[in-house]
Amino acid sequence: MRFVFCSDRCVEQCRLFKGGSCALLVQDAGKGMVRDNAMHGHEVGEVEVRSNGAPLLAGNRIHDSKGSGILVDGAGGEYHRNDIYGNARAGIRLRGGGSALFTHNRVSAGAQSGVVVEALSFGTLESNVIVFNGHCGIELRDDGDATLRLNVVSRNGHFGLLFYNGAQGLVQGNDINAVSVGHFCSLLGLFSLYIGPLLTLVRTVGNDIKANGMSGIAVMLNASPRIIGNHIHSNLQCGLCFMHGGKGVVQGNHVHANAWAGIRIESQADPMLIRNSIYNGLHHGIQVCEGGRGSVQGNTIFRNAATGIKIRSEGAPRVVGNKICDGFRIGVHVAHTAQGEIRLNAIYNNQARWVWLWLWLWLWLWLCVRIHAYIHTHTCV
Hints:
By secondary structure, the chain is mainly beta. It has two domains: about 1-115, no CATH class; about 135-380, Single-stranded right-handed beta-helix, Pectin lyase-like (Pectate Lyase C-like), CATH 2.160.20. Helix content is about 5%, strand content about 40%. It is built from one helix and 45 strands. It has a 15-stranded parallel beta sheet, with no helix packed on it. A 15-stranded parallel beta sheet has the order 2-5-8-11-14-17-20-23-26-29-32-35-38-41-44, with no helix packed on it. The longest helix has 24 residues, at about 355-375.
């Protein structure tokens, strides 16, 4: 069975399955309400909204199609409390200049990305749970734009958030991590937040970015985001990594308990780090290397297992007015061929506290064992 809306209709409590096309097509400014239905197993997707359609979809189960769960192409509408899972392509795809609102949906177990916003479209995603998707949790690309608030983006196969090729957006108050709340971390999920080439207008404000298999946030290829007031912690590599000309402003963040450097700057990257707290890391607080630059001003860097700030391999940062203290090794280490400006910093009480360092390392080893056990004993969604 297939429903086609070109006007205002209502579909409730139906089961639509295994058709040759989509289960529901809304087009030509069609509206209506689609509520509490089950749609699954269709060849080209389950729901398609085109040509200025603007339906209300609520409480539906949309799953196991060979295309996208919901495709909004040059249209709009509101989508609330739907369970979208097991689709061969994106759970939700918004393209063609459309603008839609998605709230309180669960998008899970898709073969590709959970949500894709592309081609000059605009989406608002609030309070959704986006988990266990094979590629990204949320992918914005090709001049797509979105406002992302209060979502949980967890345990996706690659990036938690991917911004690429002119994408824009506001990212605020999300929980972006590799495991559900209550567990330590997972080897699933690579970068929690990846900001790709040509992106200049993403702001990352007030997020909790944690427990990812690689870095919490990666900025590269001349991207220039504003990263303000986040907690970035417990990642299996760096908290933040700037590379290949990445720029931006990192201000007022708490960066702590990451396995590698709290912040790493390399390969001509040139960010501004202002008034951050960088602490309890298992390696360097800040590492600048391979021609990285950057401005490091007014930060508090303390209780890191290795050097507070490590500069090497032609790194050349400007380090001014920071407090670097209580580290397990040297406060600031400038290695051969490194350059830069270091002045007006308070550097004190850094020493080799090997007993505490070994305790940190043993704790991290114990966590890794627990992670391995969790992955092999919890395989269902």
